[in-house]
Here is the input.
Amino acid sequence: MAKALRVQAGALGVPAAAVDDFGGFEGQYEQIEKVAAHHGNHRS
Here is the structure.
């Protein structure tokens, strides 16, 4: 059980590291806002 918890806890760091590579959560939200604004202004 303890080994499984360590493996699971280690796996949680993978998505966080990926987000950090792209500017962290703040940077990701900024990009989402830019895309949403772009699509909101260009609807057919």
